[in-house]
Specification:
CATH superfamily of the largest domain: Alpha/Beta hydrolase fold, catalytic domain
Structural class: alpha/beta
CATH architecture of the largest domain: 3-Layer(aba) Sandwich
Number of domains: 3
Strand content: 15-25%
Helix content: 10-25%
Strand order of the largest sheet: 14-15-19-16-22-23-28-29
Distance between the termini: 70 Å
CATH class of the largest domain: Alpha Beta
Largest sheet: 8 strands, mixed
Radius of gyration: 25 Å
């Protein structure tokens, strides 16, 4: 028995007619299988029956590369260095059943197997497993769970995969290539506590109620020098936002490993960048234990969810009340168990990229709970520049429209402005990796967080994933709930007095994802404020890429490793300026 996507010829024809009528010039629906393309080559994927004994839900991916190493699953990316990927959902796949990838299955960058040029390839198949959730909204959805790797499908424990196999793809109609999936990704061992780094995991009642099962939050906590020797001390808390961290990063008590084989960073064009990273981590340790460095708690949190490796730290219709869970459950729990001061004047947020957006967002949405946000290279903070897309006025996310032609919209550039991927590239690849916003990648998580919930329980698309046609009703919902610049301007009369001196935004003017464009719009508003004036900082790095964080003296390669050493001393100055009368400014300054 085989699993294939299906669609009747009559239904498909009706969809095509409607699409051409409503959206001339392009299809306005997610690609469906074309039964007419099934006479062609195919991959037949079978899972070793010893790896699953019950019905299996998920997504089967087949990846093709020209080189065997690294494994094809680790070569998946958009743009000019893209490899070929095909994907198909499985729903109740029984042991011994085949999954067929043929010309009807949508792929990227070639949309069909029928279009793939003949040649020698290395092929690998992978199953990204889903589980069933019955949400408090009454919807039933099938999504991947965090099994220790956030939402990194390439290395998520429990996912199934094949070894890469070399194939000679002829493109002949009768060619059938069989792949057997015989491997399972092993569990990831949790990190152990050390003198300076502690780890906690707690059940969230708010999230468990939303998801209909137990949901846990975690954190890696860097405790200050003398933490165990000073039980009377209570500490300010620093929330370092970022992606799903396996442990607290950038902190190394040991000197750099002299036997470490040097690598090369193509991003930063640096030899032995791994040695530089170890040296910077050790330098931070030396500062951390020094007599004059601030004694704070610094936490990195784990808030992976079924859509991504973090939640964006806000409440969401499709992801749940993560903002409240983090602010009112996790942080008080940490402060109780690690002697935090537990008051808003003694809490600060910072981070870069996703973490930059989160740092600013929690400051905006919970203005009394934090005393400052340092947002480096934040994800779009004004949706009129949502990575070059104005979701309110543009009709299509993938193209600049003219009277006689369309120009594809750029999505990624290098520091010289050379184009490396388009917005369409990112989204087409995500559509192959996972339907219904389940790719676990960037545009999908924005959609999962910001969108209203659809009738099917999945997030409503901001635009058609295949064509790029924007849904302006969804865009209006985004504006009212998550467009940080718009919300600040709309609510400045009440928010402004609570945010004076707390907003710090940094962006490189050659940010790879064009995130500096939204920062310009935010700066225009902030500098126009008078009642009160915002009194913070917006700064830019000349020719600096993603993720520049305010260091005007060092390159991205160095400054990205110094978030703690850059921001913690500045935070100490903010505490001294703003702490209320009677605040504890002494117990933690030993």
């Amino acid at each position: 028995m085989t699993h294939r996507l299906t669609a009747s010829n009559s239904s498909l024809a009706l969809i095509i007619v409607l699409a051409i009528f409503l959206f001339p010039g392009h299809m306005a629906f997610k690609p469906a299988p074309d039964p007419g393309k099934r006479d062609g080559p195919s991959f037949v994927v079978r899972i070793d029956p010893t790896l699953h004994t019950e019905a299996l839900d998920g997504r089967v991916l087949v990846m093709l590369t020209k080189e065997a190493t690294p494994e094809p699953r680790y070569q998946v990316r958009p743009g000019n260095e893209a490899i070929q990927v095909f994907g198909v959902d499985i729903d109740g796949l029984m042991p011994g059943e085949d999954v067929v990838i043929d010309a009807s299955v949508f792929g990227y960058p070639y949309e069909s197997l029928a279009d793939l040029p003949p040649g020698r390839y290395f092929a690998q198949a992978l199953v990204h497993k889903y589980q069933t959730f019955i949400l408090s909204t009454g919807h039933t959805v099938k999504l991947p769970v965090n099994r220790g790797a956030g939402q990194q499908w390439r290395r998520a424990p429990g996912n199934l995969y094949s070894e890469p196999v070399e194939i000679d793809f002829t493109g002949d109609a009768d060619q059938q290539i069989r792949i057997v999936i015989g491997q399972e990704i092993p569990p990831i061992e949790p990190p152990e506590d050390t003198k300076y780094i502690r780890h906690i995991r707690m059940k969230s009642d708010l999230l468990s109620e939303f998801w209909g099962r137990d949901i846990h939050l975690g954190a890696h906590i860097l405790v200050p020098e003398g933490f165990d020797e000073h039980p009377e001390a209570r500490y300010p808390l620093m929330l370092f936002h970022g992606h799903f961290p396996s442990d607290f990063g950038g902190f190394r008590p040991e000197p750099p490993d002299p036997e470490l084989e040097p690598d090369y960073s193509s991003r930063f064009r640096l030899e032995a960048y791994n040695r530089i990273q170890q040296q910077e981590a050790h330098d931070f340790y030396q500062k951390w234990i020094s007599d004059d460095f601030p004694r704070f708690l610094v936490i990195e949190i784990q808030h992976s969810n079924p859509y991504y490796d973090d939640s964006y730290a806000v409440n969401s219709a499709s992801i749940g009340p993560y903002g409240d869970a983090l602010t009112y459950e996790l942080i008080p729990y940490i402060e109780e168990h690690f002697r935090g001061i537990g008051e808003g004047w003694a809490r600060f947020t910072y981070g870069g990229s996703t973490g930059g957006w989160e740092a600013l967002a929690v400051q905006v949405f919970y203005p009394d709970e934090y005393n400052g946000a340092f947002a480096a290279c934040p994800d779009p903070i004004d949706f009129r520049e949502y990575t070059q897309v104005n979701i309110y006025e543009d009709e299509n996310a993938y193209y600049y429209a003219g009277d006689f032609r369309r120009l594809e919209r750029p999505g990624h550039r290098n520091w010289l402005g050379q184009l490396q991927a388009t917005v369409r590239d990112y989204n087409r690849l995500e559509l192959v990796i996972g339907t219904n916003t389940r790719s676990g990648d960037q545009y999908d998580i924005w959609q999962a967080v910001y969108s209203p919930q659809g009738d099917d329980g999945y997030p409503k698309p901001i635009w058609d994933k295949y064509t790029g046609a924007i849904d302006h009703e969804v865009a209006a919902y985004w504006r009212e709930n998550y467009d940080l610049r718009y919300i600040l301007e709309r609510d400045w009369e009440t928010l402004g007095p609570k945010l004076v001196g707390k907003i710090h935004v940094y962006a490189g003017d050659m940010d790879n994802y064009y995130l500096n464009n939204a920062a310009y719009l935010m700066e225009e508003f902030l500098e126009s404020t008078t009642d009160p004036y915002y009194g913070g900082v917006v700064d830019y790095g000349d020719r600096a890429e993603h993720c520049w964080n305010g260091d005007q003296e060092n390159s991205n390669a160095i400054s990205r490793l110094r978030y703690n050493t850059m921001y913690l001393p500045a935070i100490l100055e903010q505490i001294e300026r703003t702490a209320p009368e009677g605040a504890d400014l002494t117990s933690w300054r030993y």
